[in-house]
Structure formats: C-alpha cells, structure tokens
Amino acid sequence: MRLIDTHSHLFLEVFSEDFPQVIERARAAGVTHIFMPNIDSTTIEAMLSACSVYKGYCFPMIGLHPTSVNANYEKELEIVARELKFSKEYVAIGEIGMDLYWDKTYLKEQQIVLDKQVNWALEYDLPIVIHCRDAFDYIYKVLEPYKKTPLRGIFHSFTGTAEEATRVLEFSDFFIGINGVVTFKKSHLPEILAGIPLEKIVLETDSPYLTPVPNRGKRNESAYVKDTLMKVSEIYGMSPEAVGDVTSENALKVFGMLK
User: Fold this and answer.
1) Would 37 disulfide with which of 95, 175, 176, 241, CB 3.0-4.6 Å?
2) Which CATH number is 103's domain given?
C-alpha cells in the first residue's frame, strides 16, 4: 500500500506529546510522504523543526493562510518572501487562498495576498496549495488570468459543487484534495467524485481537523488518510492499492518529485 498525505499540520501543539508515535503510525499505514502547509510567521519554526527531524519524509511549504490576513499582511508577506529567497527547503507555497466564512473584513487584502503568492509560485516554480471557504468565485477571479501559465497546485479540502470542480480542472496542472469529509454521512462528495477522473485526485488529512469515519470525533492524524482511501476506492470501484498508487503518483507529480 502506497499513500501520501498531501496536507497535514502535524507541527501544531496538539501533537507535541506524541509526534514520533504519530509518524510511526503513519508509516505503518503505508504513508510514504507527509506535506506540511504553513499558516503564518508564528508556525514556521515549529513546522521546519518537525520536518528537519523527519527529513525526506515530512516536507514543508511556506505561505500566508487567508485567516491570518489582517492589517499587518504586508509584514507577513515580507517574511514569506524572505523564506523563499533564502531557503530551498520549501516544496510549495501554501496554504494560501481565501476564507470568507468567519469574516469579510479583509476580503480585498486576501485577494492581494493570494495574487502576490501566486506570482511567487511562478517565479520559484513551486505549486500552490489553496484553501477555499465560501470564496470560490473570488479565488477563481484571482487565478483566471494565470490559466495559460505553468501554474500548478492543489485545491485542498475540496467541498464544492460539480461545476466548481469542473472550473478547477480548467487549470490543466491542478489537482483536487480529498480528505475525511468524503466519509461523512451527509457529504455530497461521493456524487461529485463520480465526475472527476482519479488522475486529478490527491488524498490528504488536514490533521488535526476533519477526522474521517470511523475515527470521527478524535484528533485527526496522517495514518487516517487510509480511511479516506478506503472510501475513495469504494466510490471509484477500484482496489485500495490501485487508488493509493494513482493518488500518490498525482501528489509526487504536483510537488515536482516524480522520478
């Protein structure tokens, strides 16, 4: 079994007591790579520390999360710019995007921050990992001018409509990130996935959030990507091994690691 967790916040405080055990459980589940998205300047040190302990297994991204965009956003972007300039460790720019679920105060700033980071992705030839919450049309509007560029990336934790999935896939080098939400009783994702080729899907956990059934209610961790795999295998009518292989290859492709 080959599995990749393309989105996991294992560097957060909630894992500080048992981080090595979490990694061991992931390895035992067949997880070969864990990709860690940054949040803002307060998380860089913890993320890099976690990735240095498990170098070659855990891989860091750099970016400014939309919920961390506020009046101080220019200073935060300066830190991202500095990290990109002086470190070759980062495998993606993420997680970035827009989130209008809680608050629309900084809508304009979120658009500016997203566009700036998209430009850096092109400059440094890195994929982007997009967070989208109640903001699909706004994000699409920012991304649309880049449709004919080499921009590549993942629409992380996709919970949109079939039409939105189609619009994501207008970008030929974009993939759709599927996590534990697909296992939830009221999820509409199984119907949406029916119209998306498996070659466009990557798996993720978004640990410690969105724990899949049958562990829902517990803290999520990378090993539980296997529960999402089982559901996705059921939806596509394929063996877990085959789905694991295809989605892992997709992940390595988008992160530029396909041998």
Assistant:
1) 95
2) 3.20.20.140
